[in-house]
Amino acid sequence: MFGKWRKYSYAAQKSQRHKIGWVFLWCLLFFVLYLSTTFLFSMRVLENESMQPGLRARDRFIFSSYFHSLLPGIEIWNRSVPFRRGNIVLVDMSLHQKPSLWTEILDGGVRFFTAQRISLSGREEQIFIKRVIGLPGDEITMTNFVLRIKPRDESYSFTEFELSEHPYDVAIPQVPALWDESLPFSGNMERIVLGENECFVLSDDRSNTNDSRTWGPVPVDLITGKALFRYWPLNRLGRP
Fold first, then answer.
1. What pLDDT does residue 200 have?
2. N or C, fewer C-beta in 10 Å, the chain?
3. 167 neighbors 161 (Cβ within 8 angstroms)
4. Comparing 213 with 6, which gets the higher pLDDT?
5. CA angle (64 as vertex; 62, 66 as ends), nearest 5
6. pTM of the shown model
7. Which residues contact 155 (CB under 8 A, 6 or more apart)?
8. Which residues, at least 6 apart from 117, have a Cβ–Cβ distance to it below 8 Å?
9. Full set of structural domains in the chain with CATH
């Protein structure tokens, strides 16, 4: 009986609406923050040993997210690409079927409110963690699994290590003595010149060929992020 006054009390109803409004506002704020961080950052796990010896399976990273990958028709090569030779990047091969920006936003909302159980995108992720070796306009050759690069407008070529922003090591596989460059994956590659919207990405473990040696040069807009920080395992925290 005593509690029934709330049903007829204007002050109680106003207080109730106020509480509901705050709950809705906090949910909306959290949702906007979720969408913003999705467009700006992502966390990924390296699922295999393709980036040995520097990176290992189950290492976890925070990646930047490139908003340009969602915007059709942008000429990336008319401005500086947001990564450099030697950077660890995400390559999303599923973006060959790139959805519209509004589809991505709506999909983000559905995934948020269904705890990631439902997605509207309908595309299977094909995301790879690789290292950028060549940038648009580079002239590239490979000898014994190591690339030499002649950047655009340069007179001389350099090894991939000389041009890298950060030092790194690669795992060079042992191949049979008679395995010449006419055979697949010999470790040698004829000269190629990257187009205005192309990059060349490789695995650090050069026995793993799931990279530009089999895909060919990768369009810039399939590179969706750059590794910023390794946060796991704790004993190897830091920039990858």
1. 96
2. N
3. yes
4. 213
5. 150
6. 0.73
7. none
8. 111
9. 42-99+123-236 (2.10.109.10)
Q: How far apart are the first and last CA of the chain?
A: 66
Quote the tokens at residue 84. 């450099």
Binned at pLDDT 50, 70 and 90, residue 133 comes out as: very high
What was the pLDDT predicted at 44?
Answer: 85
C-alpha 7: how far from chain center: 54
**59-100 pLDDT per residue, tens:** 999 888 765 444 444 444 334 678 899 999 999 887 655 556
Taking the CB of residue 91, how many other CB atoms lie within 10 A of it? 23
Residue type, 137: G
pLDDT of residue 105: 64
Strand partners, 41: 64
